[in-house]
Specification:
9 strands, single chain, 13 helices, Ribosomal Protein S8, Chain: A, domain 1, alpha/beta, about 325 residues, six-stranded parallel β-sheet, 2 domains, Rossmann fold
């Protein structure tokens, strides 16, 4: 059977600037598209010419259509987004960049909205929308905590929730901090720094401070949760790999009417004393398949920090295996 004849397609865009934004303002990135899809790409001014086998050219066209739709919806195309669009097309994936750009979270005046950046992150957001308890599990940098905070603030602003409760076990990562001065919120603040950082990223300073002062956003050590019932609350339990079995059970049973909980953790970064079993490990086994509870597992492919973070995680996984 003979190979199909190569074809050539020319795609034209509004302006050269708009086209350049689609491949993250670096024509060298087109090399990734060529290698991944088996096409040849040439760009000049406001057009790009694709040549190769018909199926490969069709996939490349789909990549640019996906990128264009995402950009027109306000999404920003960086190297990660460009490569994701190519990867999705090469695997005939069901979730494209355009699907990610349709989900827009929070965004105060003057602040950029938050978008999921990988298919797993999109599944995570959808799981939070439809389940009472969601476990976000995976390595550092995959957006588990950040997206949970974005969903919490979105539901707060839509008045689905009345408050946000942020908690985590006060366990140091191999380094004793000693006595911490100040009131309870000031004492626990160092442990909840990632959540504070997310608040400051997504809200303007005055709004974030007002929520904290009013108690609309509440910071509480996990030890202070016992005996409480949390209604119409979005609860984020961060660094859950450092909960004991008793702490995890206690936290999960705090939920009241119309509340939601997101539990985030990384089982490879347990800081508990030797011989103390992680409550997160027990919950993973005990709650699998329970109605209203979802597990979203991330991998190094979902790491959205500096690219070297993904390589660090992968190298450690190989070494420790």
């Amino acid at each position: 059977m003979s190979e199909p004849e190569p074809i050539e397609v020319k795609l034209e865009f509004d302006t050269p600037q708009f086209l350049h934004e689609l491949f993250a303002n670096d024509p060298k990135n087109l090399g990734y598209l060529e290698a991944g899809l088996g096409v040849h790409a040439v760009t000049r001014e406001g057009w790009v010419r694709l040549s190769g086998a018909p199926a490969a050219v069709a996939r490349a066209k789909a990549v640019f259509a996906d990128l264009e739709n995402a950009r027109r919806k306000g999404g920003r195309i960086e190297l990660r987004e460009f490569r994701l669009a190519v990867d999705v097309a090469s695997r005939d994936g069901a979730v494209g960049l355009n699907d990610l750009a349709e989900v827009k979270l929070v965004g105060s005046r003057g602040r950029k909205p938050v978008f999921p950046k990988t298919p797993a992150q999109l599944e995570y957001v959808r799981a939070i929308e439809t389940n009472d308890v969601v476990f976000g599990l995976g390595p550092a940098g995959t957006g588990k905590t950040y997206l949970a905070m974005a969903m919490a603030l979105t539901m707060l602003k839509r008045k689905v929730m009345q408050r946000i409760v942020l908690t985590r076990p006060a366990v140091e990562a191999g380094e004793a901090l000693g006595f911490l001065p100040g009131d309870m919120r000031e004492k626990v603040a160092p442990y909840l720094r990632p959540l504070y950082d997310a608040i400051h990223d997504m809200l303007d300073p005055e709004e974030g401070q007002r929520y904290l002062e009013e108690g609309t956003i509440e910071i509480a050590p996990l030890a202070f949760m016992r005996g409480r019932t949390l209604a119409r609350s979005f609860v984020i339990l961060d660094e859950a790999q450092n909960t004991t079995r008793e702490q995890m059970f206690m936290a999960l049973t705090r939920l009241g009417d119309e509340s939601r909980m997101v539990v985030t953790g990384d089982s490879s970064q347990v800081d508990l004393k030797p011989g103390v079993r992680s409550g997160l490990a027990e919950a993973e086994h005990a709650l699998e398949g329970v109605e209203g509870i979802a597990f979203q597992r991330f991998s190094q492919a979902d790491i959205i920090r500096h690219p070297v973070v993904g390589r660090i995680v992968e190298a450690y996984e190989r070494y420790r295996a």
